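Re: weekly structure request thread

Next one in the queue (158 aa):
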Amino acid sequence: MAVRIRLRRIGKKKMPMYQIVAADSRAARNGKFLEVIGRYEPLQNPILITTREERVLHWLRNGALPTDTVRSLLQRNGLWIKWTMTKQGIEPAKIALEMEKWQMAQVERRRRDEERRVRRHASRRKSKKTDAETTPAAASPTPTPAAPAPGTDAPAGA
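Done, posted below.
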């Protein structure tokens, strides 16, 4: 039996939530599974990825293959890096040090992303404000005298 670590959809219509499960590769997406090892909620801000680390590593050690999506989620969570170093035979103390460095880099990356988002938002507001100031106000145009309709007897030069 080939075991895959994959997503199992739960949640309501238009409100997806997923369980990260170890399942037989032949089973249906929402069908029979062996164990729930995590959860993924994409609508949260920031997205929520929770995993039972020891169980994920257990299934990976026993030959389970993650789907591409689950692998990217594990990379975001840092578990894939830890698994890769464990597979290479690096001692646990060095893995813990590398994971601490990775955590610090992630905090810095999130801070930079947030600053970039705030700057982008501020520049959009500023450009909307300057656009409104530079365009002439179309709400109150100056009235122009209406020309008489053709064929009417309007006094000439009156």
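Residues 90-127 form one domain. DSSP finds four helices and five strands in the chain.
Next request, please.
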